[in-house]
Amino acid sequence: MEGELKNLMMVWSIAAATMCYCHRIGRLIPEGASRLIAIIPAILLLLLLPLRLISIHLGGPSSFFLGWLSTFKLFLFAFGKGPLSSNPPLSLRHFVSIACLPINFQQTTTPSKTQIPKSPFNYASSSMLLLFPLLIPLYDKKEHLHPKFILFLYGLHMYIGLEFIFSTISTTTRKLLGVHLEPQFDKPYLCTSLQDFWGKRWNIMVNRVLQPTVYDPIVTLASPLTGRRWAPLPAIVATFAVSGLMHELVFYYIKRETRTWEAWEPSWDATCFFLLHGLCVAAEVALKKSLKGKKWQFPRVVSGLLSLLFVLYTAILLFLPALVRCHVYEKSTRELTALTQFVKDVYSVSRLYRFANVTTNT
């Protein structure tokens, strides 16, 4: 673990220095192909950096942030788009923060209590503290539990972990930079449809990156062929397909056992999962367009419940088994067990130290 922490510091130091380089490039080279050529080495470096990390709790988020989000943000920045491009230009510390982390500044004019979202940090932290001690013993007894229930626990583990990581980063960044940030999740369990779940509630930062990178260009290309009304349909499917491919890349990073290149043998389960949802969301959008103006509407409570059940069922069928094949949860359990033991050891040493001091004083 000590070596992993050193590599973590090295990876993020290099990533921050790379973003400083890109910030300078943005000042010197105008947007377009010339800036893209200057930024390509930075993008390639960001794709290589996660290879130095092999733990789930350190390497997983780093591969997602640097290998996916940061590379897409820099690609958009090369053409004057995305969260890194603004007028006036971002300061260096704001540029590096947005480029490296899954955050985006919230556009507000006058801060007020209604505009400042309540931090989910306390909720996420409490959930982690309450549920993780329960999950680890259950994993040890998974031979006696139904396989589908185990996959459900894995999904719960993943969701709470993402909430905790994003909330921690958001809260820390907000305190350090003094800015308002967009939320990463917006109560996905309250969705009213698949479109609402994926488009407005789940992993909002990914949506902010994929829309200008994939969705908008496909809409522009498809409009002459299908018309503006139906152009979003192929764009939706293409966006979900790219998301699936990037998930396969993240899975490649986290399944490695050594800090080197390994043969990439994707199962394509994640790609199938996102393609399926892309087709379903496209069908939903097409149905809404066809029924627009008509009085009939599906009850939101029913549609929301069906959407959540569909997401859960397909995740158990396709998405979570891909993580199981990467041995994500076994590695995660080992890391959490080691962390728990470390905390116990530190607590025991501190108690022994206090006892020794009391004995000496008496």
Secondary structure blueprint with pairings:
Blueprint: H1 2-28, H2 33-48, H3 56-78, H4 92-100, H5 121-140, H6 147-177, H7 194-201, H8 204-226, H9 232-255, H10 269-290, H11 300-325, H12 328-361
Helix pairs in contact: 1-2, 1-3, 1-4, 2-3, 3-8, 3-9, 5-6, 6-11, 8-9, 9-10, 10-11
Domain Wax synthase: 182-275
Organism: Vigna radiata var. radiata
GO cellular component, one term: membrane
Short description:
Helix content is 73%, strand content 0%.
Write a structural description.
With 362 residues, the chain is an all-alpha fold. It folds into 4 domains: 1-105; 115-181; 187-326, no CATH class; 335-362. The protein contains 12 helices and no strands. It has helices at 2-28, 33-48, 56-78, 92-100, 121-140, 147-177, 194-201, 204-226, 232-255, 269-290, 300-325, 328-361. Helix 3 (56-78) packs across helix 8. The two termini are 39 Å apart.
Provide tags for this entry.
single chain; mainly alpha
Low-confidence region ranges: 109-122
Mean pLDDT: 82
Structural class: mainly alpha
Rg over C-alpha atoms, rounded to the nearest angstrom:
23 Å
* Total separate domains: 4
Beta fraction: under 5%
Q: Strand tally, please?
A: 0
Strand/helix succession: HHHHHHHHHHHH
Helix content: over 70%
Helix tally equals 12
* Spatial separation of the terminal alpha carbons: 39 Å
What characteristic shape results from the CA principal axes? globular
Largest β-sheet summary: none
